[in-house]
Each structure stands twice: as structure tokens, then as C-alpha cells.
Amino acid sequence: MLSSKVLKVLQGRKLATAESLTGGGIGQAITAVSGASQIYVGGIISYTNAVKHQLLGVPTDLLDTVGAVSAPVAKAMAEGARRVLAADVAVSVTGLAGPGGDEYGHSVGTVFIGYCDAGRSFAREFHFSGDRNMVRNQTIDAALKLILEQNM
To answer: Range with the lowest mean pLDDT among 33-37, 100-104, 120-124, 136-140?
Structure first.
């Protein structure tokens, strides 16, 4: 199980999440594992731009110019979650699970996953397929795998 592996690799550190399209799914996957409270400090479900800005500190000009579904916003979300929740590691997700694309030309299945720790902060673009639930589940798995990749 990916969540168990994430918790094991992050022993002694604290993890936070910032989620948009997954609506708390990453946090749910992590907290399904016994002992998660030793690592997982919590998450912010930032489904709207207002929450991305007000709670995570994503600049409104960034949201207005590149849109919520973008690498710069995913990176800023991860940085904000790490800062606000006083974590060592943070992961964020923003994207389109359906039913339609956005005004910036992104299609359903376009997802950006942000990562932030003391030494690095970045975001990666992914393209998933399937229905809304499939895109959300693939996003959760990819976010957990990204945490593992960066901490092995």
C-alpha cells in the first residue's frame, strides 16, 4: 500500500497536503493507515481560488494569469501547505477531473502535483484518462508516488 510506504519513508518528519480536485483523498488515504498521526499533520482542501489565496497564500495575480490548473499554482500550494501547517514535506494537487476543460486550454485529466521540502520546491504535469473518479484516484496515487520518489 502506497500510504504505508509514504509513512515509513517519512519517519521522524511531518507531512502536509493541499488538495483541490482530490477533495481530501490524499489525506484520507494516508489516515487510513494506523499510526498516520505520527507523520501527517493535516491538509487544506482548497477547491476554490479564494481558499488557495486566503489559506495557502497563492498570489491572486498568479491565479488570474495562469489559472488554478498550472505548475506555478501547484508549487505555491505545496509551499503554502508546508508553511501554514508547519510540516517538513508537503504535496499539493490541482487539476481537472471533469466534466470539462478550463478557459486556459487544459483538458480533463490534466493535473499538476506540487512538492515542497526544505531543499526543493517544484511541480510536475500529468495527464490521466478515464472518468472523474479514475482521474482523482490516479492523482492520489501519483502524489503518493512523488513523495516516495523524493524521499527514498
So the answer is: 100-104
Distance, CA of 125 to CA of 111 (rounded, Å): 6
What's the half-sphere exposure (Cβ side, CA atoms, 13 Å) at 20?
31
Three cell numbers, residue 6: 509514504
Whole-angstrom distance, CA of residue 44 vs CA of residue 33? 19
- Measured over the CA atoms of residue 7, residue 8, residue 14 and residue 19, the dihedral's sign is negative
Question: pLDDT category, 106, cuts 50, 70, 90?
Answer: confident
Cα–Cα nearest to 125, from 140, 137, 139: 139
- Pair type for strands 40-45 and 121-127: unpaired
* C-alpha span between 29 and 130 (Å, rounded): 20
Single pTM value for the model: 0.96
Pick the closest to residue 47 from 37, 58, 61, 33 (CA basis): 58
Collapsed DSSP state (helix, strand, coil) of residue 13: coil
